[in-house]
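Schema walk-through. Below, the input block comes first and the output block second. Nothing else is stored per chain. Lengths vary across the set, and this one has 94 residues.
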Amino acid sequence: MDTSRPIVLTLPGRVTPDDAARLCAQLRARCGGAGPVDVVCDVGGLRRADLAAVDALARLALTAGRLGHRLRLRGVGPELRLLLGLAGLEEKLR
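--- output ---
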């Protein structure tokens, strides 16, 4: 795997509580045995920022960290940024 290119995950338009486990499994599969690379999660397509999305992002950040990667977000809207701040996650997911 080319470790100079980030791994990009795109969140669907709506995230449900059941999506977190699937997204984490997808991240584990895509990271494989790659050395440290950036993981970019594109959240620009989220139609609604809610706690299910925040939970999924927190779990993705934990999964990325356990695999030796850092999760960064792309396309964060003001509503999601506010929720991440309220949850204490805004600094961890820059």
